[in-house]
Amino acid sequence: MTRRKQEAERTRETILDAAEATFLEQGVSRTTLAHIAAAAGVTRGAIYWHFEDKEALFDALLERVRIPIDEIVDHADDGTQASPMESVRAIAQSALTRICDDRQLQRVATIVFHRCEKLEDRHPRIGTITRLSRHAQDRVEAIFEQARDQGQLRADLSPTTACRQLHSFLIGACFDWLQDTTQYSLADERDSMVETLMRGLAA
């Protein structure tokens, strides 16, 4: 990479860092590109050189960090777990562990869940940070199908519904904790929360 490209990449990251901090403090709707430029110590022209508009900058912020759910699902479904439901438990625990341990992920998830107002709530990519990919959804449903076939899944739950409940649990746990991370320790309560989920899914 040439020196000029390295400098451009550093400027881009500086702008994204400033956007992250400003969105977190002020909310997305109330933040302007002028606010971000001031926080980054650059001109608005520098922002426009890297990003078409605030929406494009927001997209780039989402792309920088997300829960690596594909990797988590693949690892949990690698054949090392004792049963399909243990794979589900591993997925839930790993996802919550990631949100506990990754401070940048916490900040961006807080912006998504609690700092997006008005039109930003309907941004087509607002769910990027938490949405199950097609790959992950297919794998999780396959795990629940195995659990059903082995008599481990509640009889009144379809694999699709069970997958949706797992996803809703993860979103709800993250949403609640990120409102105020000082209200309780998610790391300390994670295992008991996951156990409650499992009791609701298991036969």
TrEMBL record:
GO terms for molecular function: DNA-binding transcription factor activity; transcription cis-regulatory region binding. It comes from the Bacteria. Residues 9-69 form the HTH tetR-type domain. Keywords: DNA-binding, Repressor, Transcription, Transcription regulation. Residues 32-51 bind DNA. InterPro entries: DNA-bd_HTH_TetR-type_CS, Homeodomain-like_sf, HTH-type_TetR-like_transc_reg, HTH_TetR, Tet_transcr_reg_TetR-rel_C_sf, Tscrpt_reg_MAATS_C. It holds the Pfam family TetR_C_2. SUPFAM superfamilies: Homeodomain-like (SSF46689), Tetracyclin repressor-like, C-terminal domain (SSF48498). This is Transcriptional regulator, TetR family. PROSITE patterns: HTH_TETR_1 (PS01081), HTH_TETR_2 (PS50977).
